[in-house]
Amino acid sequence: MRAHLRSLDDKQRYPRGSPLSDVPIVHMARFVIIDRLTYQGTPAKADALKSPYLLFVCDFDGRSIDALVQAMVENIPDQVTAIWDHCIRFPGIRSRDQLSAYFEQCQLTTNLLLADQPEASVSDILKGLISRRRLGDFIKQVQSRPPDPAQLQRDFLQMWRTLQTEMPRPGEL
Q1: Burial track 35-46 (b if 16+ CB lie within 10 A, e otherwise)
Q2: Distance of alpha carbon 74 from alpha carbon 15, whole angstroms
Q3: How far apart are CA 136 and CA 128, in angstroms?
Q4: Stronger pLDDT, 122 or 136, i.e. the higher one
Q5: Minimal CA–CA distance to 106: which of 28, 34, 53?
Q6: Confidence band (pLDDT; 50, 70, 90) for 167?
Q7: Which of 7, 19, 141, 165 has the fewest Cβ atoms nearer than 10 Å?
Q8: Is the distance from CB of 72 to CB of 65 less than 8 angstroms?
Q9: Cβ atoms of 163 and 134 closer than 8 Å
Q10: Three-state SS for 156?
């Protein structure tokens, strides 16, 4: 399992950084294998796990795990199976209802938001990032070679029109 998880960031196999880049609602995801508990020292007892646990932390668009399960099964079904098939009672991907119930059973509720813009979708954030990058490039170009005002306006409008249709995919920026 560790070797498989490490392979998920292989740039040759996954040029955009991870198969989770193909899940359009995922902002951030992380896998951790927990195979032992840290001993806190006396007076605590040393605890041992009966088996390793897979921790999957994911910040995604939507309020329900159903949306995440559907997006992962639609976009990376082989990876979902390859990862969670190692987990106890994994129901497979044939029934999304069973898979959603499985994820919900294992889910921990938290009040900690990892996204700095919790109401923004992945698309909103990517659009903002590409706009910021293009505007920065435009300003650098203008500062290095200041055009006449009419040309500046034409160049800005061209950049603006390009931004209206440009939509980067996750992992491309």
Answers
A1: eeeeeeeeeeee
A2: 20
A3: 12
A4: 136
A5: 53
A6: confident
A7: 165
A8: no
A9: yes
A10: helix
Q: Can you read off the two tokens belonging to residue 66?
A: 């159903």
Query: Stretch 58-80: mean pLDDT, rounded?
Result: 93
DSSP characters over 19-44: GGGGSTTEEEEEEEEE-------TTS
Amino acid in the structure at residue 58? C
pLDDT at 109 over 80: no
Q: Cα separation of 119 and 47, whole Å?
A: 39
* CA separation for the pair 49, 87 (Å, rounded): 14
Residue 113: which region, alpha, beta or left (left: phi > 0; alpha: psi -120 to 50)? beta
d(CA 8, CA 74): 18
| Residues in Cβ contact with 21 at an 8 Å cutoff, skipping those fewer than 6 apart | 14, 169, 170, 171
Provide the whole-model pTM. 0.72
